[in-house]
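new request in #modeling-help
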Amino acid sequence: MRFYVLLGLLLIAQAWAKPKDLEENEVVEEDDDDAEADGGYADEEDARAENPCYNHECPLGQECEVDGEHPICICAHACPEEVEERNSVCSTSNVTFFSQCELRRQRCLCEKGQTGCDDKAYRELQMDYYGPCITLRECTETEMENFPVRMRNWLFLVMEELADRKQLTKPAMKIAKKAERQQKRWVLPAIWKFCDLDHSHDLYVDLDELMPITAPLKAMEHCTGPFIEKCDADGNKNIDLQEWGKCLGLDDEETEEDMEEMCKSLHHFS
Ligand SMILES: [Ca+2]
Ligand SMILES: [Ca+2]
């Protein structure tokens, strides 16, 4: 039962990871060609002329304000009230916020030194996992030993499920089909997941990029945090392809098999 809950969580995380969450100060500008193709170009222009904030997206925890004639993103005055505990998030400093929006809003206020910032230390706020902060029990040596096998099996199942749902890009679909025919069916999905997490396409996965996996899993799987820490063998807060392969128990020759090339082809279509 627990196994399928986790599979579901990873699938949700997969959907959640795309489109990529807006980074700080990053603003989405709609492509003019797309707008024209939508047939709503004139209306869009009119709407923007009337309200420059029309369709101007801001990162989570921020909102649009008109500065002169230009739209700018400012820290949100408030986030939507959340009454359900499952929508709360735990920060890396072990503080519970009622929503991810509220966590980002607090960071924004504290970074800018504005009224409403509850603690100066919140300038560094990062989300750790979904749900209220809990005491995660220690990951035993045996649990840690078993974790890589469980993790790579989930990754295979997630990829298989996405392939069945036809939710993979063409090159990823090819990889999924190839993986099904291999004896060690988890190797290619493990590499695919690494490439998928690497949004910046620099062949490193940093802690933010790992969030789609760690945030939904940490509260349920107490070994997730220690596992990720162990993966980053040189402790530089980035996991490279070799570190990823090693911590998932892949052999050196398996990770050497054109991993970079595979990532490049996957990134090209993402
Ligand atoms: Ca990266
Ligand atoms: Ca590293």
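bot summary: The longest helix spans residues 141-164.
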